[in-house]
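Show me any protein, keeping tokens residue-aligned.
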Amino acid sequence: MPRIVTYNVHRCVGTDRRLDVARVAAVLAALSPDIVALQELDVGRRRTGHVDQAHEIARQLAMTHHFHAAVQVEEERYGDAILTHFPERLVKVGPLPGYDPIKALEPRGALWVKVEVHGRPLQVLNTHLGLVPREQQIQAAHIAGPAWLAHPDCAWPAILLGDFNATASSVVYRTLTARLQPARKLARRKQASSTFPSTFPVLRIDHLFVSPGIEVTDVFAPHDPLSRVASDHLPLVMDFELAEGFDAAHGP
């Protein structure tokens, strides 16, 4: 059964304020994922020792990866990645719109990879939305629109996942669930799935949304000692199957 994980790694700085890329990789390795979506990665940044965190985590997991820099200043980059050991192809990376009245907001982006899961196509889209509610709403509407989820090439089955900085009561959540289903509600088993803050998780701001054609078995957030300290978020894990007999042409 395939397993996908979304994880905001907080530039691999844990709740103990220690920078440790290997620790983040160990959290993921213990989960044995097939596909991983990461947010808040540093690549070549002075503050984290000039390490390419996306490359290093992928190397330790024996996965290929694609990275998108939401922020780039000269050689220093910061952004998100998708890793997998399945055959894959990068479809698109790009920025998300900001909120013009506030000029100093951190740029945000998304990336989209087509993954072959046991020979069957799956669209995987990873993002990290902003912190201001109106900004988030603009970004969620953009993702739900023709540039991403409603793009002709985004045929179901598809998974949208990442750090949305928004709970299930938000406009963001309602915007995205108008197109996709929340994986937590579809899971056959009900387990703890709050992800933030990792030391005492009470908020569900990391999400997995799935299209028709995906059968969700389990969604959970591991709360073991290593996961609690490696980042300020817990990873969010989903076990799933691609529905038998589902025609990808059924997409939007």
